[in-house]
UniProtKB/TrEMBL annotation:
Lineage of source species: Bacteria, Bacillati, Actinomycetota, Actinomycetes, Micrococcales
Transmembrane domains' residue ranges: none
UniProt name for this protein: Pirin family protein
Source organism of the structure: Pedococcus ginsenosidimutans
Domain Pirin C-terminal: 202-311
PANTHER family referenced in this protein's UniProt entry, alphabetically: PIRIN, PIRIN-RELATED
SUPFAM superfamilies in the record: RmlC-like cupins (SSF51182)
Family: Belongs to the pirin family.
Entries under Pfam families matching the protein: Pirin (PF02678), Pirin_C (PF05726)
Recorded superkingdom: Bacteria
Gene3D superfamilies with a match to the protein in the record: Jelly Rolls (2.60.120.10)
Pirin N-terminal domain boundaries: 43-147
Length: 324
């Protein structure tokens, strides 16, 4: 069960109905995320695997981390590693993660919190479960999304945003059967707390069994729907979609998702999904490991700068005195 919930959805503002002339976005492609291991060995689903970067633009990569119920001693994170040229968005639905970077940013995020890190010109960071979670074990579930930066912003100074669950914008669908948590962007008149360099929107929605969500969506944004759990349908033709599947939507003014009336017992809350969209950057993408640049020469420079220590140095855990 996601950490950010509301007992009575009727008290929330409702998504305005799309204009009568609005065009619902069709499903252009449907893919299933393969599983993998990240960092020191925690399980992930590669949500964007096999999808053309042109369909994802301005996004690059997304992992669903878990959901996994760790036994004592099992929780894992990542070692110190570099980034340059994009932003990482780490959204924790359940569990705890400590974040720290070489510029002194970071902190603990848990149960609906988001950490937004602009790597920009270059940064080192680490993501790890706190010691108490390693000792106790417990539920862990979240996402990490990579948002590309346009050429003009790729070498901007690194920046960190610590977004608390209490800051997330909340609204409900027209039928009152969906809880929408707006993390970034403006959706249905509600603005999320994330400050983005690339115009985008990020929404975590839970659609109750039998419920429907018709969401106005910026015409100049792309649109992606990723299902965490539950069975449902997406698009004007109501294409079936289920856990670990990503729908790439075509052009239009609105998107439509609905939750199957009859859900398996473990999906009692209904259809749980992420809705993402942004303004395409439409620039060349040169991507290698932890760096996302515009051409190979910039990638080579990024690796050289990292090896020379110019992206910063690891700092002791809890020390906010890191330097570039």
């Amino acid at each position: 069960m996601p950490a950010v919930t509301v007992a009575d959805l009727t008290v929330l503002p409702r998504v305005p109905a799309p204009a009568p002339t609005a065009v619902q976005r069709p499903v252009r492609a449907l893919s299933s995320a393969p599983g993998g291991l990240e960092g020191e060995g925690f399980p992930v689903k590669r949500a964007f695997a096999g999808v053309d970067l042109k369909d994802l633009d301005p996004f690059i990569h997304m992992d669903e981390m878990g959901a996994v119920e760790y036994a004592p001693g099992e929780p894992k994170g990542t070692p110190w590693h570099p980034h340059r040229g994009f932003e990482t968005v780490t959204y924790i639905i359940d569990g705890i993660f400590d974040h720290q970077d070489s510029f002194g940013g970071g902190g603990t995020i848990t149960n609906g919190d988001t950490q937004w890190m602009t790597a920009g010109s270059g940064i080192l960071h680490i993501e790890a479960p706190p010691e108490q979670l390693v000792v106790s074990g417990g539920l862990f579930h979240g996402f990490q999304l990579w948002v590309n930066l346009p050429r003009v912003d790729k070498l901007r100074a690194p920046h960190y945003q610590d977004l608390r669950s209490s800051e997330v914008g909340l609204l409900t669908s027209a039928d009152g059967g969906t809880l929408l948590r707006v993390i970034a962007g403006e959706v249905g008149g509600i603005t999320g707390p994330g400050s983005t360099h690339t115009p985008m929107a990020m929404v975590h929605a839970t659609v109750a069994p039998g419920g429907e969500l018709v969401l106005p969506w910026r015409k100049d944004f792309n649109a992606l729907v990723y299902v965490m759990s539950g069975d449902g349908f997406v698009g004007p033709d109501q294409t079936p979609i289920g856990p670990g599947q990503l729908a790439v939507l075509g052009k239009g003014d609105a998107l439509r998702v609905s939750s199957a009336r009859t859900q398996q017992e473990r999906y009692a809350a209904g259809l749980d999904l992420l809705v993402l969209g942004g303004l395409p950057i439409r620039e060349p993408v040169a991507w290698a490991g932890p760096f996302v640049m515009n051409n190979r020469a910039e990638l080579v420079q990024a690796f050289e700068d990292y090896q020379a220590g110019r992206l910063g140095q690891p700092v002791p855990h809890g020390d906010v005195g890191g330097t570039a």
